[in-house]
Amino acid sequence: MKKIEIIKPDDWHVHFRDNDILKAVIPETSRHFSRAIVMPNLTPPILTGIHANEYKARVIAAIPKKDNFFPLMTLYLTENTNKKELKQSYENGSVFAAKLYPAGATTNSESGVQNIQNIIPLLETMSEIGMPSLIHGEVTDKNIDVFDREKFFIDKTLDMICRKFPELRITLEHITTDDAVKYVKEGNINLSATITPHHLALNRNSMFEGGIRPHFYCLPILKKEKHRKSLVKAATSGNRKFFLGTDTAPHLKHDKESECGCAGIFNATYCVPILAQLFDNENALPQLEGFISKNGPKHYDLNMNKEKITLIKSNQNLIFKKYL
Ligand code: NCD
Ligand code: ZN
Question: Which of 72, 71, 127 is nearest to 97 (CA)?
Fold first, then answer.
């Protein structure tokens, strides 16, 4: 297959940051995608509908005129989030979803949730009003090995949430393990998962190839090859519970190449061709449209995009092969 036409994709998990970085990175997403869910982990985080509206205006101002792109804003859940405020911001359209960060799990998650029991009433409200919950699924206990934190979160916390709120629309974000694939596949119908291009293309060896590679450091951290294989299988399977969330997460170069470098991989620029190459390697190009353009809107009960994109196979993809 030399050429495919598919529905224009969406990105269900992006970090745009703010100010100069925001202006620099938005065109990289808006050129390829129709919609994106915009993460709220700024400093300070987006805690209210008003903050989300102000941030949305800055995002919209940075979109190049030629691009038809719609940001979907999110609220950062804390143990102090006001139930009424949460409900209002969702119902008046200021935000599309709320993001649950276990405190300390990742970049700018310090204000996140320490004790899940304290946000049970918020989850209950979200379940009642149909507000999507986006979950960073890792425990933060320093005694748990960093490679096992996703599995522990599933067993300890996610399973409890799913059982308590079977109606809650949940996205387990950027899954990295075979355990997550299995749990989501077998889990209730309202549970889906996003997968990033880097967790599909790379395993944990990539972080240490010839030396330490800070640009391949992200959270959840890259895992063993068997987990990468399981993610690729899930993404290319056609199962509608799995869809693209790039987790494109820009950091300044000196913050990545540092004594204590930041977690996050910026991938917006090359994400779509990398995925096309990955799917082609698996002889699964016909499933690409489901993964990047159809399964997300199905989970969120949104219309599919009308615009189409064409992908053409050429020799210029050598740069991507380097990482595959
Ligand atoms: C993200 C960031 O930099 O904001 N980092 C990352 O490693 N993925 C936060 C996140 O999504 O975990
Ligand atoms: Zn993220």
Answer: 72
Q: In whole angstroms, give the CA distance from residue 9 to residue 308.
A: 8
Strands 133-135 and 3-7: unpaired
- Catalytically annotated residue among 247, 255, 280, 301: 247
Alpha-carbon span 224 to 100, nearest angstrom: 26
Instruction: For ligand 1, say whether the CB of 219 is within 6 Å of any of its atoms.
Output: yes
Handedness of CA 215, 218, 224, 225 (dihedral sign): negative
In this predicted model, what pLDDT tens digit does every residue of 182-195 receive, in sequence order? 999 999 999 999 99
Any atom of ligand 1 within 6 Å of the Cβ of 249: yes
To the query of whether residue 247 is one of the catalytic residues in this protein, the response is yes
Nearest-CA neighbor of 215 among 250, 245, 248, 256?
Answer: 256
Q: For residue 114, which phi and psi values (nearest 5 degrees)?
A: -85, -45
In tens, the pLDDT along 37-70 reads 999 999 999 999 999 999 999 999 999 999 999 9
Asked if residue 109 has its Cβ within 6 Å of ligand 1, the reply is no
